[in-house]
Each structure stands twice: as structure tokens, then as C-alpha cells.
Design goal:
Layout: H1 3-24, H2 31-38, H3 42-48, H4 59-73, H5 80-98, H6 101-113, H7 126-141, H8 150-170, H9 177-189
Helix pairs in contact: 1-2, 4-5, 5-7, 5-9, 6-8, 7-8, 8-9
């Protein structure tokens, strides 16, 4: 089996699992349910995942699927600043409308204690590629400051997003995440605008 085929199979299982988790809840979803929804075999499931808990590391696949869709839908005429705000607003609205707070909390907790691969920090993700692309465009056009490297701005942006998501989780989703970010992200990102 080729690498692309393996990645597609793993993605198919992860997507089926997250859909079921959102519809039924984590505790009410069995491995058998996931296998059936993914139209795969028990052996294939266990080839990629040790069990249901191992799927928490795949939430980054789900996010990257959403980022790919947003990239295709994004107005190319937006400025880099507007594109970054658009991505943040849309992904946070997606989180609020499609993911349960306890699911996101579990995912964060697995990333905090894992000693292996930390999927959220994988620099090859669609998320990081898209951020680098937008920030590079912004620096080339003179909109974004060159006082910081592309990677420094990407790191700052992703840290702020993770911080907001983490806070929303520990507050048990008691406030509107997308609305709060709509107010706070421009304040943060304005620090990277070119003053000239």
C-alpha cells in the first residue's frame, strides 16, 4: 500500500470517527461503529490506531480538512491581515458549531501528555502551510512587517489561537469563541502590520 493510500485510509477512519463523536458523543461511539462508518476492517483500524483514544491525535486531520475548504473559498483579493482574520473567525465558528467542548478538551489533554508525535505541531499540516503562504504574501506586499520572520509570526498566531481554544475549553465553552476572537485577534495581529 502506497503512502498516499495509507494516509487516505487513516483519514477516512478519522473522519468517520469524528463525525460519530459529534453525533453520538465519544462514550457512545464504539470501535465497531467507527469501522462500519469508515467501511473498513477491524485489522485495518488497529493497524492505524491502538484504540478509540488514539483518534484524539487525528483532530488535526479534521482541522486541516476545514482549512483546505476555507482556502478554496477564501477571496483572493483580501489582504493578508484580512485572510488571517477570516481563517481564525471561520475555524472558530466551525469549532463552536461542530465540535463538543469535551472532545476538544480531551484532544488537548492527549497532546499535553503524549511522548510521541504531536499532530497539532506538525509543520507539514495544511494549517502551517497556509499561514506561511499568507504571511509571505503580506511581507512581499509590504503589508506585514519584516521585523519578524515568517516562522515567528506563524508561531505567534498559532500560539494565540491555541491559547484561546484552551481557555474556551477550561471555561467549558461558556462564551462565544468566534465572537471573542473577532474582538481579540485584530488587536494581536495589528502588532505585525507594517507601520510605513
Amino acid at each position: 500500500m502506497g503512502k498516499r493510500s495509507e494516509k487516505n485510509t487513516k483519514m477516512k477512519i478519522a473522519t468517520a470517527a469524528w463525525k460519530l463523536f459529534s453525533e453520538r458523543g465519544y462514550d457512545e461511539t464504539t470501535v465497531e461503529d467507527i469501522i462500519e462508518a469508515a467501511e473498513t476492517s477491524r485489522g485495518t483500524f488497529y493497524h492505524y490506531f491502538e484504540g478509540k483514544d488514539a483518534l484524539f491525535g487525528t483532530m488535526s486531520f479534521l482541522f486541516d480538512e476545514a482549512y483546505s475548504r476555507l482556502e478554496a473559498e477564501m477571496d483572493p483579493n483580501l489582504t493578508a491581515f484580512e485572510k488571517l482574520l477570516y481563517l481564525n473567525r471561520e475555524i472558530f465558528a466551525y469549532v463552536e458549531n461542530n465540535l463538543m467542548v469535551d472532545m476538544l478538551t480531551r484532544m488537548y489533554s492527549t497532546q499535553l501528555v503524549t511522548h510521541g508525535e504531536k499532530h497539532l505541531l506538525d509543520r507539514n499540516r495544511v494549517y502551517y502551510r497556509l499561514l506561511r503562504q499568507i504571511i509571505e504574501e503580506g511581507q512581499r506586499s509590504g503589508e506585514l512587517s519584516r521585523d519578524y520572520t515568517v516562522n515567528e509570526i506563524v508561531k505567534g498566531y498559532s500560539m494565540i489561537e491555541r491559547g484561546m481554544l484552551y481557555d474556551w475549553c477550561i471555561c467549558d465553552g461558556e462564551y462565544r469563541l468566534a465572537r471573542y476572537a473577532e474582538d481579540m485577534m485584530p488587536k494581536f495581529l495589528s502588532g505585525f502590520l507594517n507601520e510605513n
